[in-house]
Each structure stands twice: as structure tokens, then as C-alpha cells.
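Entry type: protein chain
Record version: 2
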Amino acid sequence: VQESIGIWRTAFKEKLGDLYDSVGLDFGGSAEPTSQFSTDIYYRKDRYKALDWGTFWLTNTPETPSKYGPTVDTNRTCTWALLEDKETGFRYVHMNAHLDWMDMEVNKIQVEMIQNQIERFEAMGYPVFAGGDYNCDEGTASYLKMLESDVVADAKKVAEKANDIATYPS
């Protein structure tokens, strides 16, 4: 999920009960419910085990809660989890990001950061699913930059069944 604040994190935990677990930090670096957005990853505990996970900030200081600069409104993060299927032993990395919408040059830099992390996980032998709110449309510089990588594809373009509906509320 993206833009999950404390009240939602608490509600998810209550409603999903013991069936699901989650990983992620909010924009300020807290794992506890706060008023700041988070990019959490929820997974079924009976099916998957989180072997490792982390959150990094889409800035020049990715290990520190921060925003990219004065042209953006807030901190932006990417959470990742190395998940193992308990039945098959299959492992993959799931990434969930929320990129800037105010400055498309910053958005493109954030895409590059995600690309670099995807390549690191791929080099370790893990397939990667990178989802989230990229705050860019098809055909934009950020979208095209993401698809430059040999290991990245747009799921909408490669799926057997897909729709052509924009997800932006307007």
C-alpha cells in the first residue's frame, strides 16, 4: 500500500488479523503507526516468510529519512522484502515505492534509484516485482527510463489479460 497513515496501518492489522504480516517504515522512519505515509508490503504469513526487508528513501541520503529537495512536498520511500514461498522454497523480491509527483526530474532520478536496486537483487539471483505509485504516465521520461533496463517490463504490456484504464483519480 501507499499513503498508509497510522490509522490505516492499525486498521489493517486489526482486520487482517493473524493471516497477514507486513514490513515497512513510514516516511519518517517509524515502524509504528504515525501520521506519516508508509509504503508497506503485506503478505500472507501462512504462505510466505519474509527473509529480509528494508526501506530506503528516494533521495541523496537513502538510509536517512529525508526528502529529495525543495522542489518536492515530502519524503518518498521504497520498501522491499525478500519473500520465500513456504511450500515451494521459491524466493523473490517484492518492492513497493511511492515516487514524487511535483518534480518530474526528481521522479526520474527516483526511478533510476529503483532500477539500480532491481539490478542489485537480480545480480543476487532473485526475480523482482516492483510496484507502487510511480506518479508518472506511460510515455513520460520516467516511464521510458524504467523500461530501458533489460530486466524490467510493464506488467500491463506482458500480461495475458490487462485493461487500459488509467489509475489516476482524475
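Comment: Residues 104-123 form the longest helix (20 residues).
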